[in-house]
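Can anyone check this?
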Amino acid sequence: MRFIKPEKLNKHSIILDVRGDAEYIKERLALPHITIKADDVDPKKFMAQYNPSGDKIVNILCTSGGKASEVAMRFEDAGFDNVAVVIGGIIEAEYEGVEVLKN
């Protein structure tokens, strides 16, 4: 499993936020991202829609990294090794200075 530091994310990154609605409403990355609840992520469908050439890494974000790791394992089990867990999730992203929007 790959991992990425939050400060390495940029506007060209594919970022998948797998947190639930309540968490997402409170805070979210200012960078472009896709939101799908962890339980609803279908790796094959996601890759077909958002990364059809498969040439980019899909960076998976949650609150602290645990749920993102579970989702990353589902991608790997489906045959996709081009996924990375955002280390420390949104908590670490904010700590490292990545812009986070809050409500």
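Reply from J.R.: I decoded it. The beta strands are 2-4, 14-17, 27-29, 34-35, 58-61, 83-86, 100-102.
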